[in-house]
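A student in our group prepared the protein record below, which I am reviewing. This is what I was given:
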Amino acid sequence: MKKAHATKISVIGIGHVGSMTGFLLAMRGLATEIVLCARDGTDAKAIESQKRAEAEALDIRHAIAFTSHRLEIRAGTSADTRDSDILVIAASEKMPPKADAIRDILAVRNSALMRQIIPRLAKLSPHAIIVNVANPVDVITYHIHKESGFDWRKVIGTGTLLDTLRFRRRISDEMDVFAGDVRTYILGEHGPSSVTMLAHATVGGTNLGRLVDAMGIHDAMLTEAEQEAKKIGSEIFRTRGYTNYAVAMAVEMIVDSIVRDRSMTLPVSVYLDGFYDLDDVCLSLPCVISRRGIRQRLKPELSEQEKAQLQHSAAVIREVIKHTQETKVVE
């Protein structure tokens, strides 16, 4: 990895998430060069993608003029990503019209897309760290790890980082405390089988459950907050047709910890090869993220129920991975 003052980041896929991510990375001054990577090719879709990338780059370049940052941001195709320090994968096929179709349709389509684009990107930037945001994030992070051939430390999915921050925010709103003081994680799948660490959740060192009782807040609030963290993204999607602000902030937090070597502990999707008795799957655990990528995977203290839930979450993700390997893309 190059020094922070000479960092190249390529954002692959310039849809709502990719463009917002490029904007945030530029406004935070996290790179000296940012490439907004459009589709390769000369067909109509590729040309449209390239034109949009040019327009996004120009708009962000104008926004940078309001800051003190000095960086180059430009549009390009895969060839322009060569020697990137970080590759942000935001490329995705079109989202199915119904949220419950993601597993059956989007997982297959995006897995096929990764098999198409990742080997070339990895060859062009063999020393890069890959940050994936494409959904379903655990399944796609798994395929990126396999297709790139990169060490597990260099492939990071946004995973349950956003779920965790949504949960902390809801708790902080209910209890009128600072969200950063709510210490707990959501682990496992970024999806319905995720696991909320409630047994050891704390606020100011005080057990969350005990604190809720002491404040006279109904216990059902915790369940409601947990369900909201799992479902709110789908509700936003049904209304807006996409989500982009919060998930782009999740990418920015991960990239910031890499570029500035912050060693932040974040719940991100990572490949497991027997760690925590989980094998050949990607799911979220707390990980220390530094300039080298994932410096360390941590083993949080879970209750027996939470351990069983995490095993179930892994099984759910493996089933989807198997489905993507056995199903051909139907246009």
In short: The chain is about 45% helix and 20% strand. The chain has a mean pLDDT of 91. The first strand starts at residue 8 and ends at 12.
